[in-house]
Amino acid sequence: MINKYKLITIIAALAISPLLTFGVPILSPSDFIIAIDSNDATSNSNHSESESPSKILDGNVNTYYRNHGGGSWDALYTGFIVTPSGSSTIQSFILKKVLILNPDPDLIDLGNPNSWLLYGTTDAITSTNNSTGTEENWTLIHSGNADITDPEDPNIVEKITNTTGEIVYQIINSTAYTSYRMIFPELKDGFDNYMNIADVIFFPTYDGSGINILSVNDDVIAVQAAPASKYPAGEATSYVIDGNINNKYLNFGKDNSGFIVTPNFGSSVVRAFEIWTADDIPGRDPTNWVLYGTTDTITSIDNSRGTAENWTLIDSGYITLPDERNAYGGMVAVSNSTPYTSYKMIFPEVKDPSGAEVNSMQIAEIQFDTIPEPTALMLLCLCGLALLRRN
């Protein structure tokens, strides 16, 4: 017969074993999470001759550069590459936006940028007009909002207004570059059919004073570095960890789209994940997965390829999600014994990639499960059991 001490030990082991098998959920709505797609950026950049990027250098606010991209949803991430005469160090700039005289006040900024990304390079420019502009090695100098004054924005030290009433964007930069690439990821008021800008002025000074680094004779080309990753405002990545299966994360990148998440839980060993289907079209459900981990600080930006960090492949596999909508897809085991602080999950394929309505990947909810560190209560319990056994 099993004595009472052995019985207590067995019961305690059985109670603890589920935690040691999969552990506890680690994702919460407050976690940092961004959308990604591992596919390369694409370009549908196009412009007329009268609205070419050379217009941003002519000093005439009545002319402008307008890039139509591929039409609706596809003028985002358009911009330009410019090569001034000689090496320069930009520390501030002015964007002179196009003012459309429209009786509807909501349309007055139609096509004007709402955010910007500024890069620099010392490489010779081999990218061609209307390409992605990524043939060179580019360094991100700074990014920020083009219209909204936000004192909490960590990327801009300050925005000031010069004597002519123009906003000067001040940035921290001490590196000289021979060419610059400026990309506009978002457009004012969400209009995406085209992007336009009247003039751009780069300054070597911090306060927008002095001589314009750019001149009318500089080489300038149109580019569009549109990431494959893109989602509607109401179906962003945050919805995949909000605890509500009636919301969803949808990515128009479809194949190879996914997310990067940094749990507030801290360093963890993910041993499984749980997944729920979204509300429409089963053909958009993922059929396989790849999971990576890192201990690097996340510097990849939302809707990027998610490659700015050093990632370790953890595990991969296939999943068969039910055709039922907003349904539990089960728990999937992950082969892993290494702790990481951030995770990247990619879904390489969807159920019906050629379906007429399958233009995206979608999931309602996901949860990662980890092995927790032994708690003081567990340790106390085990120590107590050991003492009982000795006695």
Structure description:
- The chain has 391 residues and is mostly beta strands.
- The protein has two domains: 19-39 and 230-370, Galactose-binding domain-like (Jelly Rolls), CATH 2.60.120.260; 49-224, Jelly Rolls.
- The chain is 8% helix and 29% strand.
- The chain contains two helices and 22 strands.
- The protein has helices at 4-21, 376-390, and strands at 24-25, 32-37, 65-67, 78-83, 92-96, 115-121, 139-145, 158-161, 167-170, 179-184, 195-197, 199-203, 219-224, 249-251, 257-262, 270-276, 288-294, 312-318, 328-333, 342-347, 361-363, 365-370.
- The strands form six sheets. Strands 2-15-20-17-18 form a five-stranded antiparallel β-sheet, with no helix packed on it.
- A hairpin with a 5-residue loop joins strand 8 (158-161) and strand 9.
- Helix 1 runs antiparallel to helix 2.
- The protein is elongated and about 60 Å long.
- The two termini are 18 Å apart.
Short description:
This protein has 2 helices and 22 strands. The protein is mainly β and 391 residues long. It folds into 2 domains: 19-39 and 230-370, Jelly Rolls, CATH 2.60.120; 49-224, Sandwich (Jelly Rolls).
User: How many alpha or pi helices?
Assistant: 2
Proportion of residues in helical segments: under 10%
**Name of the top-level CATH class of the largest domain:** Mainly Beta
Structural domains: how many: 2
Order of SSEs: HEEEEEEEEEEEEEEEEEEEEEEH
CATH topology of the largest domain: Jelly Rolls
What's the end-to-end separation, in Å?
A: 18 Å
> For the largest beta sheet, what order do the strands appear in spatially?
2-15-20-17-18
Largest sheet: 5 strands, antiparallel
Rg over CA atoms: 26 Å
